[in-house]
Structure prediction request, 389 residues.
Amino acid sequence: MTQSGPREILTPYRAIPLDVPEGMKHNEFFNSTENLNDLAHNNGLLVNSENLLLYRKALGHSTEFDCSIIHNTSKIILDPLGRPVRRTQVADNVKHVWNRMNQTIIDYMLEQYPDPGEALILAGEASLDATWPLTSPGVPSIRMLHNHFIVFPMEELRNAKLADANNPNLTDGGQHSLFQAYMHDVYRGFFDKALNLKILKPASEPDARIELTGYPQGLPSWEIQGGADTLKDVHFWKEYDEVLKGFIDFYRTFFTQVSTRNAPMPDDVYFPEEVESVLLFNNDFMRTAKKVRDNCIVDAKYANAIRWQPAFKQLIYRNDAGKLIVTISQNSIGNAITELLGVVVNRIPDAEAYARREPALIGRLLEVRRRLIEADLGDGIATAYWPKE
Prediction:
């Protein structure tokens, strides 16, 4: 029997031939408008008038299927701190198109990989707001929301070596995390009371867990009742947003208390009644905020690692039984979205290995693009690797 545990896979990539200006760090340049131009020209698949750009992940997680949609506001909002970084900050007309793009791509992945025993499928997003330590290079530019769409062959995961369970990037997924370690009950209780969900049904931890990796661990999770067809219902996407709003309220309220003892409720919370009754009147919640605050005062390194603004990863994935599950987690520094499901990706430069897998990968991406164009969700982009249509 295959041992359960997080897996570490090797994913080849072809080096990106970019000249980073002297005096700039790589992460500063990679998030600049100039680099986004290169991203669109060399890896762009489709773009629309809502500034949503579908592109091939050049430094990807998987060579089976891997693409992203970025809300590229770099040219229309030059102040990096003024750009939308989560769906709750995106205009309704943009979000409407984005949700349709999400549904179309997820539908393709499920169609192409119908067997959960053969492929791990996930689609998710992460906040890329400037919540890194203030002294880290590139802080202002890490500021645009993007989605990931990834397929991992299960055979590849079964054959991969076990990852180090103490890898710090895996701790975001469960029992080591701050929310889980000290506020497990109040965290879930807040979601239960604040969210009025009809389509999303709370999932048990065993039902949410991928048996091969043993992840997610300890995260609140919900089953999408009705499966893939439900993604065509606009009300599902509204409930998906409700989960994010609940998370943001919890995160903001907690770190406001960490920052300032007995602080008032943050402005513009989505669920003020529940924030007041479930969080601000809960001794476990306030005790944990004090613990973190006291540690920040005496431990400079610990304080510098705090992400004071809401930092999250939210994803839709398929469990072992073929059900679609939604989960959400706080986003620790350096933590990749795949690691919520126990997959650690070790990218290695190997142009030959990437070239062997590239034709099939591009074929799948172009088919997704064709479906998006057909649904009037954007126009194709021509690159050196593929034509416009």
Notes: The chain has one domain: 7-380. The mean pLDDT is 89. Residues 7-380 form one domain. Residues 33 and 285 are 41 Å apart (CA to CA).
